[in-house]
Amino acid sequence: MIKTILGAFKPFRLLSLVMTYLMGAGLVKYVRGLSGWSLLIQGGIFLLLLSLSLELLCLLYRLGEPKNWAEGMQLREIKLTRSGIAAIIATLLTVATSIFIHWIGEGVLWQGLGFLFLTLFALCIIYYLSQTIAILKPFHLLIEVLLFVVIPPALAFFLYSDDLHPYLTLVVISLVPAYLANRLLHGLENFNHDQKYEVDTLVMRIGWENAMIIHNVLILLTYFLVGLSAVWGLHWFIIWPVFLSLPIGLLEIWLMERVRGGMKPLWGVMRFAAGSVFFISVYLIGLAFWIR
Prior knowledge:
This protein folds into two domains: 162 residues, no CATH class; 128 residues, Four Helix Bundle (Hemerythrin (Met), subunit A). The chain is an all-alpha fold. The chain is built from 13 helices and no strands. The longest helix has 32 residues. Keywords: Membrane, Transmembrane, Transmembrane helix. This is Prenyltransferase.
């Protein structure tokens, strides 16, 4: 049961959520300074609890179909596992709700932040439904990007600020392609499995070779948007460290072109390279905000 539950948690998504959240907090510190750490910690815990609950809800749905059961699992074990998952979800959501109610009582919520929470809750519902309704599955990756890359830094920022800073928009837009490239790589790595079991994924829809081309374009687009953000007003000292990861990005593109040419994929190296493009960028931008 424990192995099944832990398998629902996706380290890449959770790490993306935490790092982009801290990057958004760094922007607050850079723009106006943090007025205490309590609110920041509460916001991080709230997001983690909500995302973990969401992943467990999706797992609970998948375990309702025998084709998703692990080999050797019996009906009794499945029922016990689902009951345990339901109990964990209830606990996590209770704590998250308590934090939210506390914010209401403390007057933390303002109009813009309230709208952000409505958007967050709507995205959570659509994220879950995209696992269960076929017509919504093509939008699953888009919702995932919004939940794990866009919402976290926005929440960290609006917990302390009541106005939209252009740096927030510029930074988030620059990071989205790198995240998408990583998710496409994951789909490519699991292509044979998804094809065998008829799993409906974005890579299955657009095709093996098209996914590789788009993956490479997204890597290049990341650096293009980071550079373009300087033209749009983002200070150069904030973004220039991102280009330190450019050789890794070019390595990832070269490795993908090898696969297109028919050579054996080096999935481990490619995961590391693609992940480095995203996480190094988030880390260095966030660090620039925090130390200034």
